[in-house]
């Protein structure tokens, strides 16, 4: 069917609660940077794709291939889309190399440099797939049909032209896409922001009518708190789109919030899997879920403090353009202070404010949908989740925000 935006979509069918139902004719698999950390990772992924295309499924308990030949399907009768991020650490090293040359590089140069990691990894992944005997093709941003606008390093996905991937799928068994890339208004590649490979995977699923998208990462699914900070955090087996969007915007980095929004709009189920060889489904994001309570720490955000007029003057300038941010009016030591919580930790706002590396934003999501934001001392963050989803808000030496609109 076709939705109001003209994007060809398919109504999700055959999805079960454990995420191990029939995959349909199109597999969309996204592998984050951590998936490429181990030696031989590309070949291991290629073997997994081969097995899935042949009609096998991966046991969610052991990670072993379990034969399940459905309807006589064989490799070559199904299509797989493999979306890859840059290998872990590569993007950060590229950014550091550029800033070693220019402390404040132009945004088009920043985007072009950072996208190199995904571009290279597409070639490596395609080589491994071809060595495994699969007809794989490496695509560029221009080949995807993903159209975006805005800042070149943090563009917004505006449109998915399904014809591009549909035509490519007619010529190959496996399409390998660079995560987080699209074509800008002038046809040049643009970056959809950091950690936006999820969005590329969802867009590919929409274009090809896939009922689900699988995200392979080193996270144990979607948790009630960051398991790196709170070992007792538990995994949520099923989360609804709205709750996941809220969690993503407020610091949960398992899924990109724009990816969740597009998935919700087009009915694409998101399956969060662990890295291979385990590959089990930990969490599923869909329209169906129960009430959820969670605590999110904005660990990858930078906090800047300044006078209200200073912060207001920044909002429409290139310094903040294209970044997800929160404005948090508050008070400290009896004085009014306005805090800017900026997702792009690389932005340097020292000329107009003070970097507060001692602070982090913590957001509590209650089962009824209420949100409670607090800026807290960074050292206190690990102790908060265990007590902040009850009747009392997290304690803080700072006043809670009087408001905190998402301005992204």
Key attributes of the depicted protein:
single chain, 408 residues, alpha/beta, Carbamate kinase, 2 domains, four-stranded antiparallel beta sheet, 21 strands, disordered N terminus
- How many alpha or pi helices? 10
Strand portion, in percent?
15-25%
Query: How helical, in percent, are the residues?
Result: 10-25%
Radius of gyration: 21 Å
**Termini distance?**
31 Å
CATH topology of the largest domain: Carbamate kinase
Uncertain runs are 1-22, 56-76, 386-408
What is the count of structural domains?
2
What is the global morphology?
Answer: globular
Chain oligomer state: single chain
Q: CATH top level of the largest domain?
A: Alpha Beta
Largest sheet: 8 strands, mixed
- CATH architecture assignment of the largest domain: 3-Layer(aba) Sandwich
Number of strands: 21
Topology:
Layout: E1 26-31, H1 41-53, E2 57-58, E3 65-66, E4 79-84, H2 90-101, H3 107-114, H4 116-131, E5 136-138, H5 141-144, E6 146-149, E7 156-160, H6 162-169, E8 174-178, E9 181-183, E10 189-191, H7 197-208, E11 212-217, E12 238-240, H8 241-249, H9 257-266, E13 269-274, E14 281-286, E15 294-297, E16 302-306, H10 308-314, E17 325-332, E18 335-342, E19 354-355, E20 359-365, E21 371-377
Parallel strand pairs: 1-4, 1-11, 4-8, 5-8, 11-13, 12-14
Antiparallel strand pairs: 2-3, 6-7, 9-10, 13-14, 15-20, 16-18, 16-19, 17-18, 20-21
């Amino acid at each position: 069917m076709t939705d109001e935006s003209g994007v060809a979509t398919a109504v999700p069918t055959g999805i079960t609660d454990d995420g191990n139902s029939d995959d349909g004719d199109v597999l969309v698999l996204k592998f984050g940077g951590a998936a490429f950390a181990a030696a031989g990772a590309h070949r291991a992924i290629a073997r997994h794709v081969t097995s899935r295309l042949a009609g096998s499924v991966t046991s969610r308990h052991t990670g072993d291939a379990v034969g399940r030949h459905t309807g006589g399907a064989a490799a070559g009768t199904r299509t797989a889309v493999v979306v890859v991020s840059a290998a872990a650490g590569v993007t950060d090293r590229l950014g550091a190399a550029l800033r070693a040359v220019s402390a404040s590089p132009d945004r088009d140069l920043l985007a072009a440099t950072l996208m190199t990691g995904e571009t290279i990894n597409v070639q490596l992944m395609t080589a491994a797939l071809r060595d495994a005997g699969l007809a794989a093709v490496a695509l560029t941003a221009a080949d995807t049909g993903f159209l975006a606008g805005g800042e070149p390093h943090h563009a917004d996905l505006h449109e998915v032209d399904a014809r591009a991937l549909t035509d490519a799928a007619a010529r190959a068994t496996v399409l390998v896409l660079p995560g987080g890339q699209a074509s800008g208004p002038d046809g040049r590649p643009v970056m959809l922001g950091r950690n936006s490979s999820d969005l590329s995977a969802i867009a590919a699923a929409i274009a090809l009518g896939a009922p689900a998208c699988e995200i392979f990462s080193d996270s144990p699914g979607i948790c009630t708190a960051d398991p790196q900070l709170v070992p007792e955090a538990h995994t949520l087996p099923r989360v609804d789109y709205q709750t996941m969007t809220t969690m993503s915007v407020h610091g949960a980095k398992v899924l990109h919030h724009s990816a969740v929004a597009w998935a919700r709009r087009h009915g694409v189920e998101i399956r969060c899997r662990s890295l291979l060889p385990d590959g089990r489904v930990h969490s599923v994001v869909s329209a169906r879920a129960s009430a959820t309570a969670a605590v999110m720490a904005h660990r990858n955000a930078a906090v800047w403090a300044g006078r209200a007029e200073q912060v207001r003057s920044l909002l429409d300038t290139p310094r903040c353009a294209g970044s997800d941010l929160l404005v948090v009016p508050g008070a400290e030591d009896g004085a009014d202070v306005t805090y800017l919580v900026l997702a792009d930790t690389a932005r340097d706002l020292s000329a107009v404010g003070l970097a507060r590396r001692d602070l982090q934003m913590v957001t509590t999501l209650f089962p009824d949908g209420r949100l409670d934001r607090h800026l807290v001392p960074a050292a206190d963050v690990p102790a908060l989740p265990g007590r902040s989803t009850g009747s009392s808000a997290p304690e803080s030496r700072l006043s809670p925000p009087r408001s905190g609109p998402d301005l992204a």
